Structure formats: structure tokens, C-alpha cells
Write the C-alpha cells for this entry.
Amino acid sequence: MKTKQLIRQKIWFPGVDAKIEDKIKNCISCQSCTQTNTQEPLKMSPCPDSPWLEVSVDFYGPTPKGDYLLVIVDDFSRFPIVEFTSSTSAKSTIPILDKVFSEYGIPATLRSDNGPPFNSHEFSAFAKNLGFTHRKITPLWPKANGICERFMRNIGKVLKTSHIENKAFKQELYSFLRNYRQTPHSTTGQAPSLLMFGRQTRSKLPTTSTTPSHNQQTLYDLTKLTDSFQKQKMKNYADKNSKPSNINIDQDFHEEMESDPDLQIQEPDPTSNSNFMESSKLPVELPCSPHEEARQPALPVEPLRPKRVPHTNAPYTTKSGRVVRKPNKYND
């Protein structure tokens, strides 16, 4: 609206509003800085083929006692693992992940945010040593790690209820995890422990049989089909008010490069040093050979000495223009 008002004060021609709107809609800088109420359509992650191929990691905390919870969730079975730690540094996180991977195996992909323990050199070396791919989500977009972020809400409920009922948080958390792993998940339709281990684990509730009714491959195929169906339902619900943008960054960048000759990337000619030296505004000092340096006489270098103010009673003027006069009490 402001741009239209400015242009209308200066010039007018048929279709001026449409041209202004088209120009602003195709401006990458304008669209990236403009706050809009519509969101981009969701891009759902495909379900892995088997358990423990892809895992998501995130931190919860700090708790009232100052501890942090390292949450690891399997993307296929939604099997959660929670470990207590006193710090979120890489030195504290890597041993915990190493212990978990020694118990359940090394995953192919680990998804995390861009927090301090995951963007360090130590964690990159740890991932390279074990041979898994570390996938970082989009910065400031926690929805990309939605499996872990949704599980944090459950941990928050356990923390609040344990505080209200005056019970130990760790024992209540372990009891919650024991029941959560045996409850069918709303997305996969199967219990996380059944998909993770191929059997139902025992609990305090009576169990008729721990043998699955389907074979392993049929169970995995059914889980992937149910997961895809539920994700499509979530996408349809979330995309009701979303609108995809028509900006293609790669295409717009190449078009701008072709239209503006000043943005063309020119490779320097290694065979022509004179053109480069003439275009440079900085003085270029060519190195001398050892024989030329030996023939050149060494010039004496005088040390820089600070300028002293002459001992006189007459007033004098400094470089900044200030007049300095000697006090009268020093005239004697």
C-alpha cells in the first residue's frame, strides 16, 4: 500500500497497481521480510522401512532440580528413550548416545536441531566415527523435528503431575515410559515396543499373549501404510489456511544474474597479471630476488621519537587548535 501511494504521487499509467503488486510478489527480499499469516504447506517425512534406521534427538529441561532430559525417539516405531544428564554440552551428550547405540545399534540417520551439542566439532567427529548421517533441521523451525517436540508435551505432563501429587519424578517418568511403549500409537496404530522388538513387553496389566498376530514384514508394511494415511490426514488439516509461494529462488537468482551484467561472476585470467594489477587500487609490491636484495644498500632506520613541547612560557597551539598557556604560579 505504501509503495502504491508513493508511485501515484509521482506518475500514473494504466495497470500501475498490477505492475507494482507483481514486482513486490516476485521480490525475494520483500517476501522474506514481510510478516504473513499464511504458512507454506507441510512436507511430511516418509516413514522408514524398519525400526531404528532414523532417530530424532532433542533436550527437555531444565527440570526444577537443574537436570536435563535427552530424548531419543525412533521415527518408525515411535519408541522413546529418555536419559538424564546434568549438561547439554557435547562432552555429556556423546557418552549417553554412545551407550544407547551400543544397546540398540547404530542408526543410519540422526535428526536434531542446531543446538550447542549438535553443532560442535566433537559431535561431527562422533558421527563420522560411528558412520551415521547427522541431519540438522531448519533453524528456528521446530516442526521439522515434530516427533520429539510432540513427546516433550507428555514429559511436561508427567513432571507437573508428579509435583502436584508429591511423588518422585524419576519413578513417575519410568512408569509412564513403561505404559507408553505398550500403548498403540495414534499414527502407526501399533505399540512402539511391538514394532521395536517384534513382541509385546510385559507390564503390570494382564497379557494374554506376547506373540504378534502378523509376521514381521506384514506388520512393517501395515505400519507404513497406516503412518502414510495418518500423515496425509494431518497434512490436509494443517494445509487448510496455507498457500504455497510462487517464488523459485534458484530460477529468480539465475534470471537476475542474466539481466544484470554487474552480477556476472568473472574468473580471473591467470596469464594476464597486468590487468589485475591495473584494476586494483591497492599498491602492489613485487618481491625481489635474493641477488637484488644483496645489491641494495641497507638504509639506516631512525627510531620514531615523540615530539617534545618546548620549554617556554609563551602560549602555544596544539594540533587540534587548543591554546595552552602556562599557569602564572610557574613563572618564577
